[in-house]
Design goal:
6 helices; mainly alpha
């Protein structure tokens, strides 16, 4: 029971932050794919698809694939299907699967919000959901997120060459 209440609270906090960001900024971040990501990190915080890298890389890769497919084919239902389908192997090759990112690819293929959408909606939404989960992982007893502590890769550390 406690785990269920905790998961509900984490999902609610992430979704609430998405609403607040959208209301204050006008950015279109309270959208189904991002709410689904909030649910994933809340209900399965140690699952591989819920990890920060999977979320960030998954949305980035899916978004880029979808923007490219949409630029080539134009917005339509079939474009949404192509964008969603093409995003899956890309995420798997990158070892960063995140199922809600497939929904974002379909949304981009159907609506054609343009490349700026990746910066004006996807990035803020991904940051909001991930930051809420990271904060909950530190502050909420019994909620463990991420599965392993975040670490800089050697090549990304500023003190190393």
């Amino acid at each position: 029971m406690t785990a269920a209440v905790t998961a509900g609270g984490v999902a609610l906090a992430a979704a609430l932050l998405l609403v607040v960001v959208q209301r204050l900024s006008g950015l279109d971040v309270f959208a189904l794919p991002f709410v689904a990501s909030a649910a994933v990190v809340a209900m399965a915080p140690v699952a591989p698809l819920a990890q920060p890298a999977a979320i960030v890389i998954g949305y980035g890769a899916s978004g880029l694939v979808a923007v490219g497919v949409t630029a080539a084919a134009g917005p339509a239902d079939h474009t949404a299907l192509l964008a969603a389908g093409a995003s899956i192997p890309v995420m798997l090759l990158l070892k960063a699967p995140h199922a809600p990112a497939v929904a974002a690819a379909a949304l981009i293929g159907r609506e054609a919000p343009g490349p700026a959408y990746l910066v004006t909606a996807v990035l803020p939404a991904v940051l909001a959901v991930t930051l809420v989960a990271l904060a909950a992982g530190r502050l909420v007893p019994g909620y463990r997120y991420p599965a392993r502590p975040l670490r800089w890769r050697r090549s990304l550390r500023p003190d190393r060459e």
